[in-house]
What does this fold into?
Amino acid sequence: MASATAAPALDGQKLEQFVFKAVEEVGATLNAALVVMGDRLGLYRALAEAGPLDPAGLAERTGTTERYVREWLNAQAAGGYVDYDPTSGRYSLPPEHAVALTDESSPAYLPGFFQFALGSASDYEHIVQAARDGGGFGWGEHGHDVLEGCERFFRPGYHTNVVAAWLPALEGVVEKLERGAQVADIGCGHGASTILMAEAFPRSRFVGSDYHDGSIATARVRAEEAGVADRVEFEVAPGADHPGSGYDLVTMFDCLHDMGDPAGAARHVRELLAPDGTWMIVEPAASDRVEQNFNPVGRVYYGFSTLVCTPASLSQEVGLALGAQAGEARIREIVEGAGFTRFRRAAETPLNFVFEARP
Ligand SMILES: C[S@@+](CC[C@H](N)C(=O)[O-])C[C@H]1O[C@@H](n2cnc3c(N)ncnc32)[C@H](O)[C@@H]1O
It folds into this structure.
């Protein structure tokens, strides 16, 4: 007698292709730790500075153990991160890879991205549990690699875009900042964006805030180190309770979607702003249609969103969980729902949308 649920016929070739794709991805998963290792041990920097080296030479320059370095180099060569010359037995970094792997000021800089991804993936046990019980997992509950990796991932892009492109895309904001404006940077994390703006606009005053006290402690240290502590203050506060009033500019860099109550935070921004003030919202680039986000950038964002952003929002009151691919229409709804009358996409990069909201 025929079974009621006959197994579907399998396409063997399709199965094989899928498994081979997965082999590549397992290699890439392991590579996240190898990139962080290369960054932390100075292996990329030594290769960039010295040119072609054999494993013993690289180990000697970095004070590391030759046997580990040899294995690491072969993994890097197999993945196309370093070049290998079989005649000399030496390994080298192509100059373009050297920029991406060692130059913290380049928008192409990668180690922070990997550190952020590795730290996020390492916390997966907590997310498995949260997915079972419907709970959340707050930003501050993550380990150092998520917090520092996030800072190191975003800072190069901000360094390239904030002063040169994003602020000038907003109506009349740069002129105000040059004259001396009051700025609130909400959800500022380690303060990379706050400090960058304070360096560029010394006549303005900045108040950065974040609901995670550990991030604010680090932001204060960063401001001292950067020599901008005279014009920057950092406060521990949720977005819906940032202190002060009469701000000319309120900024939120990649954090609105992490908040439990983004609508409440939006209403608070409306109260914080001067009548002709501006709210700049930087959010991950995303289409309003999920299927249009099924591409490499969308994949990365949905990954971070599953492991970090969505659990962060669900760990807070309201727990709206916009997700890192909320899209422009959803953000507009939140902003207009808080009483803002003007909303537009003022700038964008492959990774970010920059929205301007005015009362
Ligand atoms: C992706 S990080 C971005 C940090 C920083 N703006 C940057 O671009 O480097 C998200 C930040 O949002 C903060 N955050 C999450 N929920 C918050 C809330 N309700 N109020 C204030 N900050 C919040 C987190 O602590 C974290 O620092």
